[in-house]
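Annotated sample (chain length 174).
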Amino acid sequence: MTDLYVSLFISNYSPTPIQKVISLVSRTGRDLQRYDTTGYRQVVGCIPYRYKNDGEIEVLLISAQKKGKGMLLPKGGWEIDESIEEAALRETMEEAGVTGDLEETLGKWQYKSKRHNMVHDGFMFPMLVSEQFEQWPESGFRQRKWVCLSEAIDLCQIWWMREALEVFVDRKCL
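Output written by the structure step:
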């Protein structure tokens, strides 16, 4: 009787298809961190953007991890088990809770980390946002805000990210 019950139960089972699986946990640690041949840490991020109904571009900024440190663009370490594009998409999902289509890189910037006092290579990609999630890995301690391009440049606290925004503006608006 038990065998029959299990058989009937399985035959009537119709799972709901899963469209996308989004991890709600950020990668942590530096074990897989990528460095170039001179020892510079490789980081990658995105300028997440969307078009409003009137055609105006809005950019998604996120709060820094530490309160009071302002707004910035999502970015983080490029790890050895992923392509640069995969790292950009992962970091943007972890920090900003959005996904979308990556476009051609905006460039590479070298900057010195204040916290670790080491040089980093920072790569930035535009990403046309196609989906925004209510819950994401860092939603417990990050805020996000859609702003116009000029406000994004004014609010962004990190010089090389402002420069990436300016390259983005030149590419999209000229």
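Annotation: Confidence is low (pLDDT under 50) at residues 1-22.
Annotation: The chain is about 25% helix and 30% strand.
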